[in-house]
Amino acid sequence: MITKASLKDVSHLNTLINSAYRGASSKKGWTTEANILEGLRTTEAELTEIMADAKNTILKFTENDQIIGSVLLIEKPQKLYLGMLTVWPNLQNSGIGKQLLKEAEKQALALGLPKIVMTVISVRTELIAWYQRHGYVDTGERDPFPASDVHISIAEKPLEFMVLEKIVE
Question: Domain tally for the chain?
């Protein structure tokens, strides 16, 4: 079931997101960033701050009262930004991510927004290919990867974001 997350979900979301993107647990799935980044993907403070903004929504996918997937949606002018699409590593490739993408499209349409945009680290070719199979296209736009003490690059080359978008109908 996909519903809107609330502040009471922050701790579970933090655990989910960090376990899917970074560290040893993330290597059980195919969407790990552990080979290019160290540190945390997010924090409880960041998630709380995200939820405080009315333009932001975190959708959660629950099964048996457990949050096993989530996605961040941010309302922007003429588009919906999609970020932090997350599924428990051992449940990846089971259709949960696809269901969250479809729900994001419904949200964009309900808000009257014609497209969804996202940024993906350009060296994550498998993930980019997955999004492309779901209708997202490379805009050609690139954004620098932010330097911070949370996202610590261990990649051989400098990282950058590729901007992908999908027109929703």
Answer: 1
